[in-house]
Amino acid sequence: MVREQVVSRGVRDRRVLKAMRRVPREKFVPTRMQHEAYKDSPLPIPGGQTISQPYIVAFMVKALNLSGGEKVLEVGTGSGYAAAVLAEIAAEVFTIERIGELAEGAATVLKNSGYSNVHVRHADGTEGWIGEAPFDAILVSAGAPKVPKSLLNQLKIGGNLVLPIGLAHRAQELIRVTRIGENEFEQEDLAEVCFVPLIGK
Ligand code: SAH
């Protein structure tokens, strides 16, 4: 999977590749789809949601520019797969999911897979995780109409926020916002993507 889907498309970051090689993706897909766990596509998970395509996870994690040891926030836990990849690099991962069944499922799989540095919360992630802020990096795994203000406020200066912007199931743009000062942010367009919608405040 890593060689054929990730490296071949240009993601070369050693930390990201190592993390992707270590996470057992089959544990994060529904039992009846386990034979498709390493396929080059997103897969359905409960609640009408999806576990992202492996390459997209690699691309987004790479875009955060982590060097190891960070405190990271993820919005949209879904299966917990991207949280596990993040947890292989970062020191601590805080991840929020609005669908209770998914939050519970992800928390169980992550715990059983030994990811004691991932903390899952069932809530609206557009508000961030106030008690744990600020974060070195924030990853949003669902398409938002615009960048949620509370997430910008919870980003450390120098930190990166990566998220898809745009309407669901249309062309969305994956962007990176870097906080360069208390009230200064820089924004870059990274790629065209397609995510399920971010639903919340
Ligand atoms: N990172 C996930 C991808 C999940 S798809 C994985 O690796 O499997 C995006 C997820 O975002 C869905 O599970 C959806 O329920 C969730 N979501 C959408 N809006 C949200 C919100 N406001 N707060 C938290 N989670 C949200």
Topology, element by element:
Blueprint: H1 2-6, H2 14-22, E1 43-45, E2 49-51, H3 54-63, E3 71-75, H4 81-89, E4 92-97, H5 100-112, E5 118-122, E6 135-140, H6 149-153, E7 155-165, E8 172-181, E9 184-193
Parallel strand pairs: 3-4, 3-6, 4-5, 6-7
Antiparallel strand pairs: 1-2, 7-8, 8-9
Helix pairs in contact: 2-4
The protein binds S-adenosyl-L-homocysteine (SAH).
Provide a quick synopsis of the model.
The protein is of the alpha/beta class and 201 residues long. Helices cover 25% and strands 29% of the residues.
**Poorly predicted runs:** none
Tell me the major beta sheet.
Answer: 7 strands, mixed
Shape: globular
- What's the domain count? 1
CATH architecture: 3-Layer(aba) Sandwich
Assign the structural class, choosing from mainly alpha, mainly beta, alpha/beta, alpha+beta, or little secondary structure. alpha/beta
Average pLDDT rating: 96
Key structural traits:
single chain; 201 residues; alpha/beta; Rossmann fold; two-stranded antiparallel sheet; binds S-adenosyl-L-homocysteine
Can you offer a commentary on this structure?
The protein is α/β, with parallel strands linked by helices. The chain has a single domain, classed as Vaccinia Virus protein VP39 (Rossmann fold, 3-Layer(aba) Sandwich). Helix content is 25%, strand content 29%. It has six helices and nine strands; from the N terminus they run H-H-E-E-H-E-H-E-H-E-E-H-E-E-E. The strands form two sheets. It has a seven-stranded mixed beta sheet. Strand 6, helix 6 and strand 7 form a beta-alpha-beta unit. The longest helix has 13 residues.
